[in-house]
């Protein structure tokens, strides 16, 4: 087992990893920018190293600084967390080249799945269904038009190296395709340094279903059920639940087995998530995230398995030690992502926390690095807390979530707490009747 792990991240996920390490008897090293000098993960870690100024490019994305911090503190391994360097194949290679253990998938798998076109081609070869569309990058407007004529409209143009909705445009007809194609390429070039795009058929009312996976270095792969991540705003997830209220037991078993078998054939190692669009009884692979997910919490709640702990165990070379039949699914879990933003305009609201009280009680979990007096910096993502509840049934989880949202106090800044309270009062949500565009329709209707 490792003696010391450097956590190459910040905020709630850095604290989450620290907690898992502490329970395993592993010392931790926190790295931080000058803006995060007073962050909770820095306060609690055994050691901390400042790696640069507030800009993420000069700190959390600064590979030489992170590797230097690992060297001077004598760390055995590096956990990249979520975001920043977590899906950077070059960083993973450099970590290993410098004699540290990388707590994550192989650089090869990060690279394959990091390019959406390569990922799609890879899983098609393994038998996974994908949304009908181009076989690879679309190199010209003429080719894009030909695809539109072949598959019909509407179409979705997506950045090959993309994520988070950047470089993604919808075209309703040929004229719209001409504009959307150029806009998507421009956005992709600006965001990822790669203007390649591909085209898929635009599904009308799909659900976003993803499957949590773990694989070890010995060829064993298991899944931890599916999560429904359909409540999204501008392609960013807002609320997730597990299991999905839109699937029956047969569909649930089918998508879980499909994802696990594909990962097994890939020889996948560590935590990963396969994401699908689901419509009219069909699942379509869209991407694989080769890292821990923000919403890993709800999979933990329904299985009782600490996924971060498992990541660390797998990185030591240990086998999983259990099979699919050993994983028990119990109850229902829901997660609300709380951002330091206006719940009406969604403008960021960084600032000092003045009054903080987290809800508690049976089945309530808070993953957050907030504390009274903490100043939320303006330099990073606005996610400040995750409120997770678990109940024996979905209705029990919903009642518990309603109570927890009423108890939660985050003073001094605006947050999206009111948005979540509005969402869970809606009959569509209560009935589990929603798709990936429901939330934006709801926001437009209630705040417009």
Description:
By secondary structure, the protein is an alpha+beta fold. It has helices spanning 11-23, 40-44, 63-73, 89-97, 107-114, 116-125, 141-151, 174-192, 249-266, 296-303, 307-315, 394-407, 417-423, 427-430, 438-447, and strands at 4-7, 27-33, 47-52, 77-79, 101-102, 155-159, 169-171, 197-201, 207-215, 221-233, 236-242, 270-279, 282-289, 332-339, 351-352, 356-357, 364-368, 375-376, 383-391, 409-410. The protein folds into three domains: 4-85, Rossmann fold; 132-201, Dna Ligase, domain 1 (2-Layer Sandwich), CATH 3.30.1490; 207-447, 2-Layer Sandwich (D-amino Acid Aminotransferase, Chain A, domain 1), CATH 3.30.470.20. The chain has 15 helices and 20 strands.
Fold topology:
Layout: E1 4-7, H1 11-23, E2 27-33, H2 40-44, E3 47-52, H3 63-73, E4 77-79, H4 89-97, E5 101-102, H5 107-114, H6 116-125, H7 141-151, E6 155-159, E7 169-171, H8 174-192, E8 197-201, E9 207-215, E10 221-233, E11 236-242, H9 249-266, E12 270-279, E13 282-289, H10 296-303, H11 307-315, E14 332-339, E15 351-352, E16 356-357, E17 364-368, E18 375-376, E19 383-391, H12 394-407, E20 409-410, H13 417-423, H14 427-430, H15 438-447
Parallel strand pairs: 1-2, 1-4, 2-3, 4-5
Antiparallel strand pairs: 6-7, 6-8, 9-10, 9-12, 10-11, 11-14, 12-13, 14-19, 15-18, 16-20, 17-19
């Amino acid at each position: 087992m490792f003696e010391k792990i450097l956590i190459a991240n910040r905020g709630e996920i850095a604290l989450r990893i620290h907690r898992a390490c502490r329970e395993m008897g592993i010392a931790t090293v926190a790295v931080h920018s000058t803006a995060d000098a007073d962050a909770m993960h820095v306060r609690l870690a055994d050691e901390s190293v400042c790696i640069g100024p507030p800009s993420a490019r000069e700190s959390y994305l600064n590979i030489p600084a992170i590797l230097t911090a690992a060297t001077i503190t004598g760390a055995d391994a590096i956990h990249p967390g979520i975001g920043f360097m977590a899906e950077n194949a070059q960083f993973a290679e450099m970590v290993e080249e410098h004699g540290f253990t990388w707590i994550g998938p192989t650089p090869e798998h990060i690279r394959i799945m990091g390019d959406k076109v390569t990922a799609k081609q890879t899983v098609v070869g393994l038998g996974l269904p994908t949304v009908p569309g181009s076989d690879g990058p679309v190199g010209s407007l003429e080719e894009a038009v030909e695809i539109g004529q072949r598959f019909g409209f509407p179409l979705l143009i997506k950045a090959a190296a993309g994520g988070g909705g950047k470089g993604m445009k919808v075209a309703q007809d040929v004229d719209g395709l001409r504009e959307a194609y150029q806009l998507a390429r421009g956005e992709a070039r600006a965001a990822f340094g790669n203007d390649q795009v591909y085209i898929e058929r635009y599904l009308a009312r799909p659900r976003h279903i993803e499957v949590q996976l773990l694989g070890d270095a010995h060829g064993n792969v298991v899944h931890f059920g599916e999560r429904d991540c359909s409540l999204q705003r501008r392609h960013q997830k807002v609320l997730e639940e597990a299991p999905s209220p839109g699937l029956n037991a047969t569909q649930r078993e089918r998508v879980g087995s499909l994802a696990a078998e594909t990962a097994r054939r890939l020889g996948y190692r560590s935590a990963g998530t396969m994401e699908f669009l689901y419509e009219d009884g069909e699942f379509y692979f869209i991407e694989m995230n080769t890292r821990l997910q923000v919403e890993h919490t709800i999979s933990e709640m329904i299985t009782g398995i600490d996924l971060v702990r498992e990541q660390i165990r797998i990185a030591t070379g240990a086998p999983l030690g259990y099979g699919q039949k050993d994983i028990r699914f119990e109850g229902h879990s829901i997660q609300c992502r709380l951002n330091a933003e206006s719940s009406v305009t969604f403008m960021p609201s960084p600032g000092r926390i003045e009054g903080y009280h987290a809800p508690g009680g049976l089945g309530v979990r808070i993953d957050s690095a907030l504390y009274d007096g903490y100043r939320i910096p303006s330099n990073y993502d606005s996610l400040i807390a995750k409120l997770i509840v678990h109940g024996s049934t979905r209705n029990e989880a919903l009642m518990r979530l309603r109570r927890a949202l009423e108890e939660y106090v985050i003073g001094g800044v605006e947050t999206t707490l009111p948005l979540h309270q509005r969402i869970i009062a809606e009959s569509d949500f209560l009935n589990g009747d929603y798709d990936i565009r429901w939330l934006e329709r709801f926001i437009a209707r209630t705040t417009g």
